[in-house]
Amino acid sequence: ATLLDVFSTEITANSALTAQELADTLITNEAILFSGMAMPMEEGFLMGFDADIKGFEQAVAFAPMIGTIPFIGYVFDLADDADVAAFTTTLEDNANLRWNICTAAEQMVIATYADKVFFLMCPNSLEG
Known about the structure:
The chain is of the alpha+beta class.
């Protein structure tokens, strides 16, 4: 809920923020108690999904530097005329809370603002 609030606050204050700027803000939030990174992604295989994810103009993943934490987030920037509801349904239908071999995320959060999509799978606690 904290990261969703940050996403909502940031994008409402400045809708011109890029996916990279939003992801950088999210992964450096004080609620994140582990070292994280944000990196641009291309269409196709994305960590946390069982099928290729396509249909976005820009995507940035934000995640821990250590892969044992079941946490993966994305900020997607879709085309202005994209079907945002269909895209989020694709994310929900293909997300795998157990993508991380030794652990499993406990929650999935998806939110949209215009053509931006916030997606997160994480444990209930963000401690590292």
